Each structure stands twice: as C-alpha cells, then as structure tokens.
Automatic annotation (TrEMBL):
GO terms for cellular component: extracellular region. The lineage of its organism: Eukaryota, Viridiplantae, Streptophyta, Embryophyta, Tracheophyta. Pfam families: PMEI (PF04043). SMART domains: PMEI. This is Pectinesterase inhibitor domain-containing protein. It comes from Vitis rotundifolia. Residues 38-191 form the Pectinesterase inhibitor domain. Belongs to the PMEI family.
Length: 196
C-alpha cells in the first residue's frame, strides 16, 4: 500500500491552519464580547453614580437611554457623554416638532394654553442650537463651556412647565416630554461634571 506523502502533509497543514483560524476567530469573538461587557458595565456603573447623585434621574431611564444608541456598546466615558448630549438634542428637536404639530392639529386650546405652548416651542427652539454647541464643546473637551450651555438648554423644560403653573388648574400637555428632556440633560450634565 502506497500513501502519497505530499497529499497527507498538505492535508495536515490545511487542518492545522483551520485550527489556528478557528482559535483566532474564537479569540476575536471572546474579546468583542469582553469589550462589550466592559462597556455595558461602564453604562451601568455610570448611570448608578448619576442616579445616586441626582434624585431627578432614574437609573433605569439612564441605562435604557444610553443603551438605545448602538454606539454605546463599545463607547468610552467621553463617547457616552457625547451620546447623552446627542440624545438630549434629538429629544429637543422631537419636542419642538411635537409642539408645532399640536398647535396645527388641535385648535381647541384656550388663548392662555396656546400662549404657553408657543412659549414652550420658543424655549425648545432656543435649546436646539445650544445643544449643538454643547456637542462641539464636549468633543473639544471644553467641559466648562459645555456645562454652561447645557444648563441653559436644560432650563427649557422647567420654564415650560412653570408657564402652565402660573394659572391655577392649568395642566401641561407636555409634562411627560419636559420630564424626559430634563432627565436627558441631567445625564449629559453629569458627564460634563465627571470629565471636567
């Protein structure tokens, strides 16, 4: 019986290369999961710290908000800060649209409620460019300036709600939206304070 040696050697070499390739693939996947796990831990630890230091921020809301962005899975603390600001910016843009839509579609507002909605729309319209500046400030590591502009943008929600409270019995149709925006800004503000 004759066995052709080069074939058996080539087969063994291919088999060995496949083993090495599988080991590399397994190691890469393990490293990816490990890194994602560390990022997930970073989100949970950071949100716990934020919620512990700010009674206006819910831990679960913080985690769900940050994890809603797929980029957060591999993000550093600084990158999570940018993500949090972008979430607040996106939310302010949505609220501004929501108010415009409400004013166009619902004609049943009394003059006071309509004036409040228009004031809120102006507040959120002003918050949007401030938040865009905050993203740039944050990326430039100018956390002091980011903190000031973010604090100013954050006032939109409180000032909006205060307008409705000035008249007894007036109920804000934006209470939920204002609360979400406030929490998103508080989370972003916490990142600027951590990195400052």
């Amino acid at each position: 019986m004759y066995i052709y040696a080069p074939f058996s050697t080539k087969f063994s070499e291919k088999k060995e290369k496949m083993k090495h390739s599988l080991v590399l693939i397994y190691a890469s996947i393990s490293l990816l999961f490990f890194h994602s796990s560390l990022s997930c831990q970073l989100i949970h630890q950071t949100c716990k710290r934020i919620a512990d230091n700010d009674p206006n921020v819910s831990y679960n809301f913080c985690v769900m908000s940050l994890e809603s962005n797929p980029m957060s899975a591999n993000a550093s603390l600084e990158e999570l800060g940018v993500i949090s600001i972008e979430l607040a910016l996106s939310n302010a843009t949505y609220i501004n649209w929501y108010i415009s839509n409400k004013l166009l579609q619902d004609k049943g507002f009394d003059p006071y409620a309509e004036a409040c909605l228009k004031d809120c729309q102006e507040l959120y319209s002003d918050a949007i460019p401030k938040l865009k500046n905050v993203v740039d400030d944050f990326k430039d590591k100018d956390y002091y300036k980011a903190n000031i502009e973010l604090s100013a943008a954050m006032e939109a929600s409180a000032t909006c709600e205060d307008g409705y409270k000035e008249r007894k019995g007036e109920v804000s149709p934006l209470a939920k939206e204002d609360n979400i925006f406030f929490q998103l800004c508080a989370i972003a503000l916490a990142f600027t304070n951590m990195l400052h």
